[in-house]
Amino acid sequence: MILFPAIDLKEGKCVRLRRGDMNHATIFNPDPADQARRFAALGAEWLHLVDLDGAFAGRPVNGEAVEAILAASRLPCQLGGGIRDLATIEAWLAKGVARVILGTAALKDPGLVSEAARKFPGRIAVAIDAKAGKVAVEGWAVESEVLASELAQQFENEGVAVIVFTDIDRDGLMGGINATATAELAGLISIPVIASGGVSSIEDLDRLLALAPAARSKGGGIMGVIAGRALYDGGLDLRSAIERLRESPGC
Asked: What is the structure's pLDDT at 20?
């Protein structure tokens, strides 16, 4: 299982939000490229990047910061936020992003997801951000009536590399990840799932690891977990987290 340190970008800075609220942003590093180098030095294998301004604007906004991260670190990066057409997908992949994440587009333009997944095998992910089990889009500002499980199942056999599942109610609050909901989703679909939202400690990782074998036996399983605020606040040590996840291969 892979640990993905998160670098969320707002106005060119590395921040964390609470429940996706742009009015409750904490700046952790004004230099995202420096933050990427720090994560790399601590043993990170991937980086999870989100253009928060882009998610609200519907187009890339923090492109300069993303490009600085790509130049500063050789780690593969997955990027989401404001990516809603094929040209933008192609542009980011050409610039060195390893995997593009489609969220709002997955709900509003599923054909784009299918087309991109066929054109770029293994490089397209779908973000499913859920509030009380239902999908929220456009930077979590708009809630739908579509169940997270329904949207995930829609992309079976479409070539999507991974599903990034976030429980909005827990994101940025360090109240513990929703391991049960994550495992249930991972057991419903053949697409691997990356867990996100609320990771606060090694115990959260242990809960995921405990549920991962059952999810793997039923579906694509849990292939990774994203951590943000806990890494910045010190509640989770990156080196220790990586080692813990490496102790349980094949989950």
From this structure: 60
